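Sample A.
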Amino acid sequence: EQAWNYLSQLADSMAGEDISQKVAGLITDVEMPKMDGLNLTNRVRSHPVLKNVPVVIFSSLISRDNDKKGEQVGAHAQISKPRFDELTDTLRSLISQ
């Protein structure tokens, strides 16, 4: 919830500027307090300013069901913990696009 509040306030304050200058990408977990990562991803995808920010779900809960849910909410990638090398490589690739 704190991440969403920060991102939405930042986006609202950007006044037409390119959000990628402030937020190059977003890494989220599935399980978080107050708002899960799937809900956060869905909100980011639905926001007109944030919708193009690359989102990677990085979780120990990657399963077929969660993978399908991640695709449905618009995650660019889903990586199982603790594969940090894959996480950094994926995020670098998404940011450079």
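Sample B.
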Amino acid sequence: KLDPVIYDVKGMGNWKKGRQYGQVRLVITRTNRRDDVFLQWVAWDKKGPKEIKSTVQISEIQQMANFKTTFIRREKGKKNRQIILGLENQYDKTSSRAIIQVQDVGLYTCQFE
């Protein structure tokens, strides 16, 4: 379950595995201290969104420091969809970027620049 303090939601594209399909979305929750970033795989049927198949927290961002998101940009990588997040460290105000790539249902990679 996600914190009710949802700050932003961005679609990352579609997924398909066997007969199941749906949309991948990025969800950011914001509190005074930090942003937390999640990926969700939402299954669809003929009528629309049906259920959340998987929700994962981007633990790499959560473990690094208390960050606030400064920008969100969708890109198509060489093999996978990716989202670039601008991050500002709330302690020392330094900036970095997280590159999040969707691998499969419930699986992703996250790299920092």
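B remarks: The first strand starts at residue 6 and ends at 17. The CA atoms of residues 10 and 26 lie 5 Å apart.
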